[in-house]
Amino acid sequence: MKNRFLAYTLAALSIAAGAAMVPGAVASAAPCSDVDVSFARGTGELPGLGITGGPFVNSLTSQLSGRSVSTYPVDYAADFSQYSAGPGSRDLVNHVTSVAAACPATQFVIGGYSQGATVVSNAVGLRTPSSATGAVLPAAVAERIKAVVVFGNPLGLQGRTIENASGTYGPRATSYCNFGDPVCQIGGFNSFAHLTYAINGKTTQGAAFAAAQIGA
Q1: For 3-17, 37-51, 83-97, 139-153, which range has the lowest pLDDT when averaged over its residues?
Q2: Mean pLDDT to the nearest integer, 194-209
Q3: Which of 57, 63, 71, 142 is deepest in the core (most CB within 10 A)?
Q4: Which residues, if any, are the signal sequence (predicted)?
């Protein structure tokens, strides 16, 4: 019930904020950008980057001034069952591999929030209940994925993060889990902690981390 309440709240916030229309939240028309940023929204959010992905992408784009940045909102259902994360990872993998093939100089940032973080976890090869229907990024593109940034990742309920569970992507990953967030913290007690990544500085911090990885 707690996760369903959060999902309904996310949907309401998404509608109220017009999250699907965040400036900079639509995919760039440029055929090949310097940096391609993919982000998977949370459960129940409207299609688009979502209440966390929009601010994250906007901040990252501003921190990468002088470079062209394309953005891609992962196309998946983000439904209440959580099992849509598997198909979400397939869409993310398909996007990255197709852009990588067409644009050999493009670097990638991938991110996700809530169920969207599960999409990312599946894509980097970490098993979750939905990974059986998912896909994993091929080794051929791994070095071009410069940063992995997730917020409120349910993987935390298993005592894991991408940083400590992935030998390939861990050094390029960062995870944000607000204190008390029951979606990512064992014993989490504050449902509203899951909703504040965009207003407590975490999306800006995540963008700074990704920008530094791109610049490294």
Answers
A1: 3-17
A2: 98
A3: 57
A4: 1-19
| Given 14, 36, 130, 194, the catalytic residue | 194
Q: Tell me the H-state helices in 38-172.
A: 50-63, 85-102, 115-123, 139-142, 162-165
Phi-psi region of 92 (alpha: psi -120 to 50; beta: other; left: phi over 0): alpha
Q: Output the pLDDT for position 215.
A: 85
Question: CA separation (Å) from 125 to 97, 137, 146, 211?
Answer: 15, 7, 16, 23
Does the annotation mark 95 as catalytic? no
- Would you call 91 a catalytic residue per the annotation? no
Which residue, among 216, 28, 183, 205, has the nearest Cα to 113 in the 3D structure?
A: 183
For 69-113, what is each residue's pLDDT tens digit?
Answer: 999 999 999 999 999 999 999 999 999 999 999 999 999 999 999
Spatial distance between the Cα atoms of 146 and 51, rounded to a whole number of angstroms: 23
Structure letter (DSSP) for residue 45: P
- Which among 84, 89, 114, 166 is annotated as catalytic? 114
Contact status, residue 94 vs residue 63, Cβ threshold 8 Å: no
Question: Mean pLDDT in the chain?
Answer: 90
Token digits of residue 154: 């349910």
pLDDT at position 24: 38
Residue 155 CB burial class (10 angstroms; 0-12, 13-18, ≥19): buried
Contact 68, 112 (CB under 8 A): no
Residues with Cβ within 8 Å of residue 64, at least 6 apart in sequence = 34, 35, 211, 214
